[in-house]
Every structure is written in C-alpha cells, then in structure tokens.
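notes to self, project folder thing:

trying the whole complex as one job this time. last attempt i did each chain seperately and stitching them together was a nightmare. two parts in total, labels are on each line so i dont mix them up again. if this works i'll redo the older ones the same way
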Amino acid sequence: MSQFRALIIEDDRSIATVYTEALRMAGYEPEVIGNGRAALTRLRETIPTLILLDLHLPEVMGEEILASVLADSRLSGTRVFLITADHLLAEQMRDQVNLVLLKPVSFTQLRDMAVRFRPAA
Amino acid sequence: MFRLQRYFTITSLIAFILIAVLLGYFFRILAFADLIAASESKNVVLTQTFSNFLWPEFASFVSEAGALETDELQNHPRTQELYDYIQAQLNGLSVVKVKVYDLNGLTVFSTERAQIGENKLDNAGYLSARAGVVASELTFRDSFSAFEQTIEDRNVFSSYVPIYGPDGNVEGVFEVYDDVTPLVERLEQTQRNIIIGVVVILTGLYFILYLIVRRADGIIRQQYHDLQESAAALRQARDEAMAASQFKTKLLANVSHDMRTPLNAIMGYTEMMAEGVYGDITPRQRKATTEILRSIGVLIEFISNLLGRAQLESGKVKLDIKPISPREFVEEIQPQVEVLAAAKGLAFNCEVAGDVPDKILGDRYWLRQIVLNLMSNAVKFTEEGSVQLFVFREDSQWGFRVKDTGPGIPAEDQERIFYAFEQASNEHMGSAGGIGLGLSIVEELTTLMNGRVTIESVLGQGSTFTVTLPLHVPEVEMV
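result (full assembly):
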C-alpha cells in the first residue's frame, strides 16, 4: 500500500481507468469518485496527497469542488491537478492549482507530472 | 427629416406677400410723384392764364390793398369784380379756390371771402413763391369751402405761384387749389389692380411651384422611406449573420469539447498499450501504437485549429496575458512533438537560449497553438532528418524558430501559404494532408500579439519559420 493517496474525480469510467493506471505507475494509491456530490462527501473524510479533478462533472460542478478544496485548511498540503477541455477555463484556473491539463490528457504526461509533484517519501 | 413642402409654403407665402406689398408701395410713390408734378405744372399754367388776364387790370388794386381795412377790402367793388372774373374763368375746371396775396403776405383776395385780410407772412409756401419758387402740397380735406358750396372728403392739391410783372419782378402771389380727388382715386384704383394682378400671377406661380415641390417632396419621402427600410434590412441581415457566426463558433466549441473526451480515452489506452501496461508488445504492435498516437496528434491539432479558426473569424480571440515560463512552456509541448517526430523517425531537439527571461508575459494557450502548428507542419512535410525548436531573445523581442530539413517552400508560395485553406504547391509535399488552416492561424495570432512571422527557405534544403514577438516581462522580474 502506497502512502500517497490520490483522489480521481472523473465521471467517465473508461478515462478514469487511464488516470488510475497512470497514477498507480507514478506511485500513488488511486481512488475513483464518479460524481461531484460523492466527491464532496469523501473529501470530508480523507486527506489525499493528490486530487485529479475533471472540471466537467454531473450534479456538482468541478469549480464548486475546487472552491471547497481550496477553502479547506486540512487540504492545504494536497496537490491539485485540474483537467478540462476548455482552454479559457484552463488559463483562468492555472494560478489556483498545481497543474492544469487540457483534454485529451496524455497518459505518459500525467504519469510523469504525478511523479514530479509527489512529495519526497 | 427635411419637410420640403412645409418650408416651401412658408417661405413662398412670406416672399409673395413682401413682393405684393413692395410693388404696390413703390408704384404709389412713383405715381404720386408724377401726379404732383403734373398738377403743379397745371396750376402754374392756370396762374399764368389768370395773371395774363387779370394782372394788368388789378395789379394796382393789389398793391394798394394794404392801406384798406379788412371790412373795406372784403366789400370792395373790385373784390366782387375779381370774384366774378375768376368764377367765369374757372367754369368747368377742377379748381376749387383761388387766392391772391400782395408782397406783404396780405390776403388781398380769396374766393372764400372770409379769408380776405389774413396774413400769410409766416407761411413757408407763400415765402417760397414770393422768392420765385413754386410750392405745392397735396392734402386730404374732410370738408373744404369751394366757391358757394362746401365739398367733403376731397384730395386737394394747392400751389403758391409767383406773379411776375412786365419787368420780370415778382409782384404778387397766387394760390390755386385744385381738386385732384378723381386723379387720386384712379391712381389708387390702378394701385389696387397692380396688387391684384401681382397676387394673381404669384398665386399661379405658387401653385405651379407647389406641384413641383410636392412631387420632389414625395420623392424625398420615398427615398427616405426606402433608406430606412434598407437600413433595417441591413441591420437584420447583419444580426442574422452574427447569429449564424456565433452559432458556428458555439457548435465548433461544443464539437471540439465533445470530441476531446473520447479522444482522451483512445489516447490513454493506446499509450498504456505502448507503455506495456497490458503486457509486453511486439515491435510491430509498437509501430501500430505509434501510428495511432500520431494520428491522434493530427486529429487534436485539427480540432484545435478548427476551433481557433472559428474564434478568430468571430473576433472572439481575447488574449489572456499572464506571466509564463518559456522553459516550462517548451517542456509541456515537447512530449506532443516528440510523439509526432518519433512516428516519422525524425530527430527532434529543442533549446531555450540562455538570455531568454524566466518569466515572460503572454497568452499560453495561443502561443502553444502557434508553436504546435509550426512544429507539426515541420514534422508533416519532413521525411528524413530533423526538426528543431529554438526559443530566442533579440533585444526587446523574443520568439520561436522552427527549422526543418524538409523539401522547402517555393518563393512564389511563401506568402500564399499563410492564407486559410492554401498549401504550397511543391510536388514533394504530396500527400501531407491537412486543410491548410495551421499557418493562417499562426499568422493571425502572431499579428494579434503585435509580432510577425517570417520564412527562410531554399528548395531541397528545408525551411525555417521565425515568429518574433515584443518582449514583455512581468514587473516583479524587472526588479
């Protein structure tokens, strides 16, 4: 079991699998949450090392989750990667998070970036 | 709008009234001057006639009358004699009164007997005549004593006329009152006729002009109306075109967004296979995954350019200027270009010059579009050799240089390839694919960033595209 937990918030199962594999290869223990409301609940219980957040989610918008993460002092050490297909949104969010990835996200790039942002063990 | 008909009516009415009044007024002045001149000369002739007849006989009576009392003078037999003479002379003439004065201003005789004995020394007309100059005056009298009767509402023309003796000296003054009422009435009648004539002519003129003006006014109104209508039609057409353009941009944005999600999965799984997540792969399988990834790269570029093109067309590209790190920027692009270059077996290297600042102000997304387009073009048209990306700084400018070892671009095509849907005609490029959007986007984005794109190319020796941009660094960096 890795000491680095990652929360993947992504509603598309197939894409979530790609992210899971990339983060696992990067040395994380990933957990996938398929909708925004569940993500908000889960984030109150756990302190992941990395959150991978798709901004386009059903029910609760990605922005809302991001706002809640940024406001939560428990999560101040958590790295956040945002994923979006909207480049304008990507540029707006860039300063608030560790990394913004524009869809389609490259498996190798995600893996390499996750490694880079992993805290020293 | 201009109300021609109304302005014409007001202006012409004022002008016509002025013309009629002025014409009538000037006619009256001229006609009365004529009347006065004619009447005066008639009075002079009359006086001369009187004096020719009467003066030889009555001159001594007049000169000696000063010695008599008024009563004596009024009832003097010579006075009656004179009255009878004058009445006989004036029979049938329009003269209504005659007076005779001596040189001392004494009224020696008047056909109105009560006036005999009055003194006229203070009368300007009398004094003028005594000095040898005829003086006349036209007056309107409510009532006037003429011989035995009183006449009413008359225009009376009176003249003081000097009487000369045989030696040529003034010996007395005659005053003759002529009733010119018929003349004045006729003159006023003529004046009225002239005014009526003028009014009739002007009214006719007005109606002719009115018809012309009304026609012109109708044409102006029609044109104004047509103009309004075509302006409205133009506005509507413009609104429709804008709506269509916005729809197109929105549609492309949605299509682009919706295509990225499945592409994300295709790309992810292909990469996982290539990385051996699903077990070891054979060299042939690796070749296949590389080919799939290259095609995905082309597709992503195509989608980005389609969206970029639509946004440029609709003027929606707003630069989001933020501090960016050129080195990180290149690092982000590198994997994408590497995949493309590797698929064709091309060497790829990139370098950021040492003097390029750590932070530069720019729009990350659109800069990325520029570089990716140039890089993917370089890879697309190069069959062997290498592609290079070099980030440079030159004084107050910075930019990218993309160099390939491809077939080169003929000089005659070097301008044309920057237009949308145009590609170089070099036969060596053959089936490179694409619809020719990339360079037009590069050119427009560079212009939007106040920069420029240049090409250096020799056929058979490759091409170098250089994008030069003004260098702005964040203020913190300048300290």
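what i see at first glance: The two ends of chain B are 62 Å apart (CA to CA).
need to look closer tmrw
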